[in-house]
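hey m, so remember when u said the tokens were messed up on ur end? i reran from scratch. heres the input so u can diff it against urs
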Amino acid sequence: MPFLQLRDSRYPLREGVNRIGWGAEAEVRLPAPAEGPAEPQAAAVATVQVAGGGAALSGAAVRLNGVSVQEPTPLLHGDSVQVAGWELRFGDEALLGDTVPLSIDQDAPIAVPSPAAATSRGGGRLVSQTDGREYPVGVDGLMIGRDPTCHVVVSRPDVSRRHLTIRETPAGYLLLDTSTNGVLVNGARVLTEVPLGRGDTIRVGLEEFRFHADRSEAAVAAAVPQLASTGTFAAARRPAPKAPELLLGTLEVRNEGPSKGTRYELRSPRVDVGRGLHNDVVIADESVSDSHAKLQLREDGWYLSDLGSTNGTYVGGERLQGDMKIVAGSDLRFGGVKVVFRPSGPTARPSGETRVIVGVKGPDPKRAAERLKELAEHATEEPSLVPAASRLTPWLWLVLLALVALVLWAVTGGEP
């Protein structure tokens, strides 16, 4: 059944002519004008003719979607009707059933903020890529959905009644996904929310919109690192250099988008992963919990465990339960962020055990035993009674005997 909605009041439209005005005979009653009671001749200022499943609007001072109506004009679900300063929304209850759920590709790329998100301030608006209509982001935000009270109505069964909201924050524009089947920003799936930047494309069902906003020069200046004077020149402040730590491995982002190829280095036997700044690996994605997972180098390799995250930790597409050993090239996923694990460096053991170096030959136990036996036998031998100095070779003995004979010959005067 078709209806007109004014604020929180819904007026069903019956078959035939339905009058919009202030009189008792009006099927759709408007609030009393601020100037006083309505004139009798203004009891019905517009009409909606319902026939054959369709509805048409007519009236002398009525506008449809901001355009004056000159003759009966068909109404579509979500159309805005402006009458005497009031806005009503036309809807069809047949289009307000339950949202048809679709299968969601869990491996689809996750939306991340575009570079323009940091400088988009003020003047936010959506432009339909179908008909070119513009929809400004007001102070209360901009809502897209199937419900006729939304600012932008997309009447498809796979679109939720209130599919998404765009609102302005002090940090820029933020898209909040409240749908069943999800939202695509720049072709990537939104997980809960994502900042918007100028030129971003938003897909809701089969409808596509482009986001526009003003560029804030103040935000651009704030994004540039502050410089500190060093005398003649200016140089950016830098932390004191640290001694390099041993690189034990890396995690490389595989998601499509600006973050693809980002490498996180593992420089400790225990590495905490999460969105919070206290982690060793900080992944600034809304699908990642504050403290999400833990990597630990044990005696026989690296192990991964989940820390009770909301969206889970996956290894090779399987959700992690407990601890699991991972190897080089393992495909991991923290929430919606896919990474590949690559270990590197020596496989030092946290326990401090001696590492065996391949290629260096160790001692031969058999030869060592024989050598010990030989040393023991020498140690038990009796010491020699002959002084070490008197242990002479045979030719020295001959020399000594010759000298003795010569002396005897001289003493006897050469006589035999």
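this time it looks ok to me. Confidence is low (pLDDT under 50) at residues 223-244, 346-363, 382-390. if urs says something different then somethings off w ur setup not the seq
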